[in-house]
Amino acid sequence: MKASRFFIGTLKEAPADAEIVSHKLMVRAGMIRRVAGGIYNYLPIGLRSIRKVEQIVREEMNRAGAIELLMPAVQPAELWQESGRWEQYGPELLRFKDRKQSDFVMGPTHEEVVTDIARNQIKSYRQLPVNFYQVQTKFRDEIRPRFGVMRGREFIMKDAYSFDKDVDGLKLSYQKMYDAYVRIFTRLGLDFRAVVADNGSIGGSGSHEFHVIAETGEDDIAYCPSSEFAANVEATDALPLIATRGAASEALTKTSTPGAAKCEAVAELLGIPLERTIKSIVLATDNEGAEPTEPTIWLLMLRGDHSLNEIKVGKLEGLKGFRFATEAEIVEWFGTPPGYLGPLNTKKPVKVVADSTVANMSDFVVGSNEVDFHTTGVNWGRDLPEPVVADIRNVQKGDPSPDGKGVLDICRGIEVGHVFQLGTKYSEAMSATYLAENGKPAPMQMGCYGIGITRILGAAIEQNFDDKGIIWPESIAPFQVVVCPMGLDRSELVREHAERVYNELVAAGVDVILDDRGERPGVMFADWELIGVPHRLVIGDRGLKDGKIEYQGRRDTEATLLPAEEAAQTVAQKIAAALAV
Amino acid sequence: MKASRFFIGTLKEAPADAEIVSHKLMVRAGMIRRVAGGIYNYLPIGLRSIRKVEQIVREEMNRAGAIELLMPAVQPAELWQESGRWEQYGPELLRFKDRKQSDFVMGPTHEEVVTDIARNQIKSYRQLPVNFYQVQTKFRDEIRPRFGVMRGREFIMKDAYSFDKDVDGLKLSYQKMYDAYVRIFTRLGLDFRAVVADNGSIGGSGSHEFHVIAETGEDDIAYCPSSEFAANVEATDALPLIATRGAASEALTKTSTPGAAKCEAVAELLGIPLERTIKSIVLATDNEGAEPTEPTIWLLMLRGDHSLNEIKVGKLEGLKGFRFATEAEIVEWFGTPPGYLGPLNTKKPVKVVADSTVANMSDFVVGSNEVDFHTTGVNWGRDLPEPVVADIRNVQKGDPSPDGKGVLDICRGIEVGHVFQLGTKYSEAMSATYLAENGKPAPMQMGCYGIGITRILGAAIEQNFDDKGIIWPESIAPFQVVVCPMGLDRSELVREHAERVYNELVAAGVDVILDDRGERPGVMFADWELIGVPHRLVIGDRGLKDGKIEYQGRRDTEATLLPAEEAAQTVAQKIAAALAV
Q1: Is the distance from CB of A122 to CB of A114 less than 8 angstroms?
Q2: Name one GO molecular function term (chains A, B) (predicted).
């Protein structure tokens, strides 16, 4: 490609609505332009990277035996009524009427449509397994679209749906997709991690998220550097940090702790480690019945340095649908407002749940249910009845890995892919059955597998940028090399070498752009650094008189000189090496 | 591709709602499946052909210097309000509200969005010309979606938009697109014609439609086999068929023509050629004003074998917005109901317009304004005042070509492409200006250029089918060759040769499918003939014992035997020859 025949729309300034670096850089690099909230034009440079992501995804999906088709963006409400999601799905599901007042939705996902295909097309076990995928434009009416392509409303996804005879087949299909995703993100050149995920609203059991690791990620991931373990922090089991409870050695003592409403302040005031203090969290569950009754009040006890995992709590017996207690309830049950709460001497009975670490603590510190007072030397059995014990906290750095193979670390990630075992949720709701070997109809076992194509661009940038702009991996850079001639209009020698190098790179299958716009070097360099082209060749009379062309990798701090005749080949080799996975 | 890893969903019967052959065959071949009215799933076989059309379109658009980008399906109402089309566009424009009650549309076309891009991105004449295109999914809320992909609601289009400094630039950009379209449809292997079009609601001046020629086409095209002339019948000038009016030779005679209310019946009854009779058509125009007044009644006179061209009539002075007269009006003005109308002795004055052929007729026959009577020997000047003369008829086969280079023929076509000179319609409405060389802002001159990607599939089938199914051109066939092994499970020899031939074809870059499903020959052949694969190789023990493989082209009535070792090469050469344009 020659720049004079291309469209380059770089900007000096990012728009005011761009909060994160990838959004800013994508607008500045001329990749996207806002049309409405969460709706973008993909300008030529942006589209080139999208197409490269799509191509890699397609190649790996095909390699894994998935078959491409294309489903519509506009879907009839009937299918969503059949699955039950017409009612269940929130306002993110854009519902509208056509000119005949029939109900439709803009598809945010395609479980219903693909299940309809399967039930119509698949009659016999002989047709299974099958895995259909598409690369398609979706719409999700986010209440607060932002972060550019990271949380847009209209976006491009690859979604795949597998159909199997039985759970064993589903597990095999799932594993194939898992393996394909590993290859995809590896080929994309991204630092990523497959993590065990807690299942969302889509239902079913067994799922992994694929995260691009980036400091700016919105999800916390727990992983074990010495093993394969990785999971969303929310979904990671927290093991007890104390193997056996120690014997009580201190007397129960009410201690003045003026103004120390937080564990950190208590520890400092008393000169003890934070790990000796207890955080008290008060929850409520409302009891159903004809007559209004009092709620049940729960006291959840965590070690002072730990944080509550609400998802784990919601799965405990009696705590499904819990809420945080109101201040009035706290005063009524504990006799004091929040800040100095504890399990001792409550005004009305509360149900105590101790985190599995807390359950093995001894001589610990709790609030006295009196403003400005804590009680030290508290011990289970002696001062308090044995509690209900459960894992109710988030893991943190340094915790033992649940697989027993080391110690956890925490990183932040951006979810770019998700593989799900759906089971028969949709096939049962929509009667997608096949005739099994035994001649009887059975519901198909389904899996679904998504990759956010446009989101990947944002995630790749969040992981790879500097103060000059984007730093693309070779696999998805809009161009892999830029050839920048110095004084193209003055020097016949420069023109000749630029054309030669350009043609050699094209012949080598390299995606190269020749910047023949006639811009000043400073403008050229700034544009291509902003756009993030990973390799740059600068061709000028000064170098050429010594037979040299200047090369600089986007991450290099300095340029190096290459023999002019070898420049194209050298760069082509660098790219081939980067793409080899 | 091996059929066992692919999805083939052929059907014996077409669905009841399929009216035309392409719709029936696309469903039966497993290319499309209905999701809702005018909304389809593109199954794997259908998607393959779509992608091939897209690829050819992209290559030729890129070759012509157009730059690909991607605009959203969902567009904010504001842009359509700016252009004025929010009000002007009919209910085909699907309007809806998002969760925040903001107005949006599902884009049926992208003039507004691309003009918004241009006004934001293009500041100077130095950035012009530029031509942006996309391949994108559109939605048009047709009141009566039907004919499968021919008149769907959700469909894939390539739309391009050129921006130029001035009209000369626009004409150049237009010509480049015209030439690109000729290359595209030639490469697609379709019999097509570029025709001069009457402009539709999109506005501007200067446009051509590209039609695929097919008997089932919905548009009538007039063309001159001995010249380049081609135009929609509606837009073709009808030259007078009589150069000079002959002298009157008959006396004006009222003649009994009982029951002969049509010209054909009159001609037969009187034993004269149809070309001597006159068809009288009564139109009305309503006069505006504060007081309701009588309409103006018009009598349009056509030769008995000619048909009225309403578009031409609507452009005549005084006839803009005409309507057909009511029967009551006809009785009031002519003294008789329709059937025996004529210009002589009307009860109230009417405005007479004679077609340019009628104006040169002599001794002709008109209705007498009395049931069961006609008047023969009618002559202008002698019996009637000289009329207003205009071209008000459709051309027909045998008419002189407007370019003076021969005689017209008529064929039917399916519109698959359209090139338009928009001028400044959108750039003025939306203030898309650039700074010209003289330092002053000027509106950009725009052109727009569409190709119906999914529609092309239907049109190609309407042009290429037989009673067995589709007959694809090599360029867009879902597969170019099918290899059908006979008894794959029984014969190691067949298996070896099938694999060898398959691998040789793959190596030659041929898009081949090996039917390894283990179906009976009859089922295999019927499937691939229905799907329309243009080349078939049948590999069986019987042929192999003589060193032969059976070849049959999809249009061949019989198979021929090829030397087994040369079969792949021979077919690859046939395909290469077919694709060479």
Answers
A1: no
A2: aminoacyl-tRNA deacylase activity
A116 contact B CB<8A? yes
Cα–Cα distance measured from residue B501 to residue B537, given in angstroms and rounded to the nearest whole number: 9
Taking an 8 Å cut-off on Cβ atoms, the answer to whether B67 and A5 are in contact is yes
Q: Could you say which of 3.60.10.10, 3.40.640.10, 3.30.930.10, 3.20.20.140 is the CATH number of the domain covering B14-237+410-462?
A: 3.30.930.10
> In chain A, how long is the greatest CA-to-CA distance?
95
**B289: pLDDT strictly greater than 60:** yes
CA atoms within 13 A on the CB side of B62: 12
Q: In what order do the strands lie in the sheet with B323-324?
A: B323-324, B278-285, B296-303, B351-355, B388-390
Domains B14-237+410-462 and B479-579 share a fold: no
User: Across B12-51, where does the E strand assignment appear?
Assistant: 32-36, 39-42
All residues of chain A having their beta carbon less than 8 Å from the beta carbon of residue B120 are 33
Q: Do B94 and A99 touch (CB under 8 A)?
A: yes
Cβ–Cβ gap B6/A104 under 8 Å: no
Output the CA–CA distances (angstroms, integers) from residue A377 to A366, B213, B252, in the order listed: 9, 94, 130
Among the partner-chain residues B9, B73, B143, the one whose CB lies closest to the CB of A73 is B73
Instruction: With CA atoms as reference, report the closest residue to B409 among B197, B227, B218.
Output: B227
Interface of A with B in 68-87 (CB under 8 A): 68-76
Of B35, B99, B116, the CB nearest to A113: B35
Q: Does domain A479-579 have CATH number 3.40.50.800?
A: yes
Highest CATH level, class, for A3-237+410-462 = alpha beta
Please answer whether residues A527 and A563 qualify as being in contact, where contact means their C-beta atoms are separated by less than 8 angstroms.
Answer: no
pLDDT in tens, A370-407: 999 999 999 999 999 999 999 999 999 999 999 999 99
What is the residue whose two structure tokens read 């080139």? A48
**What ipTM score was computed for the predicted complex, to two decimals?**
0.89
The model's pTM is 0.89
Q: Looking at the domain A253-390, which fold is it?
A: YbaK protein (3.90.960)
CA angle (A534 as vertex; A511, B56 as ends), nearest 5: 20
What does the DSSP 8-state code read for residue B335?
S
For chain B, the C-alpha Rg in angstroms (whole number) is: 30
Residue with tokens 């103004």: A259
The domain limits of chain A are 3-237+410-462, 253-390, 479-579
Q: What is the pLDDT of residues A166-214, one digit of tens each?
A: 999 999 999 999 999 999 999 999 999 999 876 544 444 488 999 999 9
A106 vs chain B: nearest CA distance in angstroms?
10
Chain B residues within 8 A of A67 when measuring between CB atoms: 5-7, 44
Q: Which residue has the tokens 């504001």?
A: B78
Disruptive mutation site among A31, A69, A162, A173 for chain B (greatest number of B CBs within 10 Å): A69
> Of the candidates A73, A97, A120, which has its C-beta nearest B33's C-beta?
A120
Report d(CA B432, CA B112) in Å as an integer. 10
Question: Mutate which of A40, A53, A70 to test chain B, going by most B C-beta atoms within 10 A?
Answer: A70
